[in-house]
Amino acid sequence: MPRSGPTRRPAAPAVPAALVPASEIDDDGAYTRRVFDGCDLAGTQAESIELEGCRITGTDLSGSRLTRAMLTDVVIERSSLANLRATSSSLVRAEITTCRMTGWSWSGGRLRDVTLRDCRVDLANFRSTAISNSLFEGCNLKRADFYGADLRGATFEDCDLTGAQFAKAQMDGARLVNCVLVEVNGVESMSGAAVSSRDIAALAYALAGALGIRVTEND
Fold it and tell me: Which domains, and CATH codes, for the chain?
């Protein structure tokens, strides 16, 4: 049965007011109460790092490779995460705001209590990721790949999901509100999702295709 009731908003990250400046990330590093402000960390490659109670502002992390990373109580704003690849990693109680995330990949991992707001997340990869109690708000998610993802605790508000892939995703309880749903793939996996009435028309052609229905013009 589809889940019902209001979706709980993600818990806010607990980031202390007093933070210690940092400028690099190394393998097996544990970073607590740090601030990365205006740093050039593009192409960083690190395994088994931990960030807790940290703030990342105006920092370039594009093209980075993270393995078994654990980020908890983190705020990331006005930064570039384009083409960042994270595998077997977790993001818990995090807010990511006004960031460039084209080609961002967080596959086979976990997002819990995460808010992505006003971010460019097109061509992103969320394959086989468990996304619980998380919110995508005002994001460009064109052609994002959610294949096999667990989206039962995800909410999408005012997002552009043109061409997004949802095949094999679990979406019972997911919510989509005021979103662009043109050319969505894997629409048959959206069973149990709550879609706002103004958005459902955009799914009509995708639903017809999934059911093998030919849509013809009126004579």
Answer: 20-210 (2.160.20.80)
